[in-house]
Design a protein that fits this description.
- By secondary structure, the chain is of the alpha/beta class.
- The chain has two domains: 11-47; 78-430, Glycoside hydrolase, family 3, N-terminal domain (TIM Barrel), CATH 3.20.20.300.
- Helices cover 50% and strands 9% of the residues.
- It contains 15 helices and twelve strands.
- Helix 2 packs across helix 3 (65-83), helix 4 (87-93) crosses helix 15 and helix 13 (349-359) crosses helix 14 (369-381).
- The protein is globular, with a radius of gyration of 29 Å.
Length: 432
């Protein structure tokens, strides 16, 4: 039947190919639009997730308030607490005191120290449960919960695990760990160490060692990573990030870099290397670990002539300026122990303490706390040290304690001072 001009004519081969090409183009266009749409949807989902992350955390059950509020509220809380503290309370917070051999709980009740640092003698004759109860007694006695610190670096410096009652073997050195299992072994050891210390009530490990030395004859070699600046930088950041996950305080040491210098425990040490060498080598692990979230930096007593040829690093404003401005560190700066010869021989214990605060240290690691607290108090009263200078340090210390969970956050965010005793005698500040 002839259907006229409306009848369908069979397509030729060329037309079929053209139609096939058109259909393929339509398919590709639809597919491309679908891919773009899915990508935009995924990006939007990620954006919403990131922007609502804090709300999700807030709704999660059994999450401590500390994880929910973040750093902003820790700043607010520390500032509010600071406003209610007396000058005496503030100054005591700046002292990290060698734990007294006797009556440590009573001393902690009398002076609201920033913290105690424990040494091997404190663990030698106690079983783990005894030590745990002893540390808990310090915190119960303290009006402001304390940082409880120890040097448990591994290897040649183990204050706790060196004693068999605390475990089958001491923690190994960073060099040995890396040789045995690389970064995985470094991480697993850091986790084990954090759990071990926290179980005893210790909330700060004075580690990692960030010093760069590859000379086996150098004093610091056994304690260092021993792999050069860039590898040490990776090591330091790895340890700090792992400690942060385990919520135990970290302390980088010994700024600005010990190098191959002699032992400052027994004598003064002078480092005459160029500033460029520090920038290109010694600063790298500190910068890396600071980027990883390091809580504190300990400053050595070495005289570094390229930075300050007149004062040990721990007493040098210039060295602290470099740490704050060039390396961008915003956390707590701690002196190495002021009883060490390189500092103690520089000036009297009282003057050394005042100089340490003037230089920019937030916490003073010390033994002669009675004389040194009084010296700092008098320096503020006389106008040598400003109240603003004290407040800067104490806010950093309170913030660190809050973020570590040392001070349990209250639901109503009351300042620490609202829990102080109504009457407090200050024997150290009643001296003639």
């Amino acid at each position: 039947m002839n259907e006229g001009r409306w009848s369908k004519r069979p397509m030729g081969r060329r037309e079929k190919r053209a139609r096939s090409r058109r259909e393929k183009r339509r398919y590709y266009v639809v597919f491309a639009i679908s891919v773009v749409f899915l990508a935009l949807a995924a990006a939007a989902a990620v954006f919403l997730l990131e922007n609502n992350r804090e709300n999700i955390r807030l709704e999660a059950p059994n999450q401590p308030v500390l994880h929910n509020v973040g750093k902003h509220l820790s700043d607010v809380w520390a500032a509010e607490t600071l406003e209610h503290m007396s000058l005496e309370e503030k100054i005591c917070q700046m002292f990290l005191v060698r734990c007294p051999e006797e009556n440590a709980a009573q001393v902690a009740a009398a002076y609201p120290f920033g913290g105690y640092i424990l040494f091997a003698r404190d663990f030698a004759n106690r079983q783990p449960q005894q030590m745990k109860e002893e540390i808990a007694s310090y915190q119960r006695a303290a009006q402001i919960d304390m940082l409880i610190c120890v040097d448990e670096e591994g290897g040649s410096v183990n204050r706790v695990s060196r004693y068999s009652q605390y475990g089958a073997a001491p923690f190994q050195s960073p060099q040995r760990l890396y040789q045995e299992g690389g970064w995985e072994r470094i991480i697993s050891d850091t986790v084990s160490k954090a759990d071990f210390l926290k179980n005893l009530g210790i909330n700060v490990n004075m580690a990692p060692v960030c010093d760069v030395t590859t000379d086996p004859s150098a004093y610091m070699y056994e304690r260092a990573f021993g792999q050069g600046a860039r590898m040490t930088a990776i090591y330091a950041k790895t340890v700090v990030e792992t400690m942060k996950e385990k919520r135990i305080g970290s302390v980088l040491k010994h700024f600005p870099g010990y190098g191959n210098n002699t032992d400052t425990h027994t004598a003064a040490a002078v480092d005459e290397r160029s500033y460029e060498e520090f920038q290109e080598r010694d600063f790298l692990p500190f910068k890396s670990a600071i980027a990883g979230g390091a809580d504190a930096v300990l400053v050595s007593h070495t005289v570094v002539t390229a930075m300050d040829d007149a004062y040990p690093a721990s007493l040098s404003p210039r060295v602290h300026q470099i740490l704050r401005q060039e390396l961008g560190f915003e956390g707590v700066i701690i002196t190495d122990d002021l009883v060490m010869a390189a500092a103690a021989s520089f000036a009297s214990p009282e003057e050394v303490a005042v100089m340490a605060v003037e230089a920019g240290n937030d916490m003073l690691c010390c033994t002669d706390y009675e004389a040194q607290i009084l010296a700092v108090y008098q320096a503020v009263q006389e106008g040598r040290i400003s109240l603003e200078r004290i407040d800067e340090s104490v806010q950093r210390i309170l913030k660190w304690k809050y973020e570590l969970g040392v001070i349990p956050p209250k639901e109503d965010f009351r300042p620490i001072s609202s829990f102080f005793q109504d009457s407090q005698q200050w024997p150290v500040l009643t001296a003639d």
